Structure formats: structure tokens, C-alpha cells
Amino acid sequence: MKSFIPILFAAIMLAACGGAKQSNESQDTEPIPSEETTETENVEKPQEIEEAAKENTEEAVEETQPVYKLNEANWVIERLDGSKEKNVLITIDDAPDKHSLEMAEILNRLGVKAIFFVNGHFLDTPEEEERLKKIHDMGFAIGNHTYSHPNLTQISEEEQKQEIVSLNKRVKEITGVSPAFFRAPFGMNTDYSKEIAAQEGMMLMNWTYGYDWEKKYQNPDSLSEIMVGSPYLTNGANLLMHDREWTKDALEDIVKGLQSKGYSIADPDLIEAPKRAN
């Protein structure tokens, strides 16, 4: 009996060890995903990448398709799809003087776009440069309004070129992008200024109406009333405003007043570039 007990104990121990080994082997054979395996599973196939890139490209093209064209006979914008949806274009001259940045912030808060036409003599200081950069970074279109705001019909062709081209270079230095639009001071173009604007890839632009330089409209209430109630307010109207304190103070009422009349504010980036002869 005494010799049987050690034998029984040895048998039990051997059985236990064998079970433990079998259990460990079972655990060891269970697959553990490595980083390499995980990465391989998550890598997109070339075809999937190509299809995704194609979809993204198509979406980007869709987003940048022009919606409007500019009628150079009367400077209104017209919808390319021929629909009767009412739109107006907001433009602001003499930027970035004292009030342009705040005007851009107001428009941005209201969710509407505009063109800010820039003069070079408002880009003389780092503070003025920063204003322009902020306006551009908010997504507003930048236009060329000449370097020093001369009457182009009264200066030489060489001076006209300098006024236009030097400002384009200055704007590009600050924003990284050249202006897409050109508006001559006082709306007075010459054949040569039109030629230079075309060479620089800019769209010519004048306006339908504006009032903020007239003394009787140099207060927010009168200005907002006439801008919304003007007899010249029609579908596609091209509205001219300036960097002025009273215009800044009237701006929100002008936008909301136009919208209450059923007008949408057009995005200038969606205006079709004109086809120019080579």
C-alpha cells in the first residue's frame, strides 16, 4: 500500500503536466495580428485609391463650375442656367482702408461674399498688409483698383501699366494670389487699360449703382434705405460701395434688406471668366 501511493502521485503529476502543455500549445497556435498584418488589411487597393481620387476630383470640379456670367454691356451678372432666381453682386472699393476688415467680418458672419477692390496706397504698412491677408483668408475675392487711384484717361500708357501691374504684384506678394477682377477708378477705362487687364487675366468690372459718396447718403439709415430701395435694383445688379464708416454701419441692414426682397448675394468666384481673343 505504501509503494502504491508514490506511484499514484507520480501518475497524477504526469497527467497534470501533460494537460498544461496541451493548454499552452493551444494558446500559442491562436493567431495574433501583427502590425504588419493589420496594416496590410487596412491598405487600400490601387483600384480603390484611383476611384476615390476620381470621386474627389469630380466633386472639386462640380464645386467650381461657374454659375454666372458678367454682361459687359450693363455690368449685371446673369445666371448661366437661365433661371429667374434673383441675385445681386456686392463690391467694395478702396480696400483695405480703415473699415474693410470689419466689413469683411460682417459679411462673413452673414454668410455672404463680395469683391474687395484694392488700392496700393492702402498697403503701405504691415498692419494694412495684414488686413488684406485676413480679408483674403476669409474667402473674399480681391480686385485691382489701381495703385494710387488716378483717372486712367489722364495719364500715359506707361503709367497706366505701372498702376495696374505693380498692384497685382503687390497683392500676390501678400495673399499668394493675383486679383481676378479690375475696376478702373471713376469707372474710366482706356483701350490700353482694358488690354493690360486682359493680359493680366482680370475681368473688367464697373457697376450698376452706388450712393455712399453722396453727402445725403453718408449716414447708415439713408444709405441702407436707398441701396435696398433704389429704382436701379434689378436682378443681377452690381452694387458699388466703399470703405467708409457709414457704409460699414449700414452693411448688415443692406444685406438683410436685399435678402428680404428675395435677392441672393452672388459669390464672385462663381462668375465665368470671359473668353478673350488671343
3D structure, described in words:
- Helix 5 (126-137) links the parallel strand 4 and strand 5.
- Residues 1-44 and 56-62 have low confidence and may be disordered.
- The strands form 2 sheets. Strands 3, 4, 5, 6, 7, 8 and 9 form a 7-stranded parallel β-sheet that branches. This protein has a two-stranded antiparallel sheet with strand order 1-2.
- It contains 9 helices and 9 strands.
- Helix 4 (100-110) runs parallel beside helix 5 (126-137), helix 4 packs parallel to helix 9 (245-260) and helix 6 (157-175) runs parallel beside helix 7.
- The protein is 46% helix and 13% strand.
- With 278 residues, the protein is of the alpha/beta class.
- The chain folds into 2 domains: 19-63, no CATH class; 68-270, Alpha-Beta Barrel (TIM Barrel).
Features:
278 residues, alpha/beta, TIM Barrel, 2 domains, seven-stranded parallel β-sheet, two-stranded antiparallel ribbon, 9 helices, globular
SSE order and pairing:
Elements: H1 4-28, H2 35-42, H3 46-63, E1 68-71, E2 76-79, E3 87-95, H4 100-110, E4 115-118, H5 126-137, E5 141-144, H6 157-175, E6 181-182, H7 191-199, E7 203-204, H8 220-229, E8 238-242, H9 245-260, E9 264-265
Parallel strand pairs: 3-4, 3-8, 3-9, 4-5, 5-6, 6-7
Antiparallel strand pairs: 1-2
Helix pairs in contact: 4-5, 4-9, 6-7, 8-9
Briefly summarize what is shown.
With about 280 residues, this protein is an alpha/beta fold.
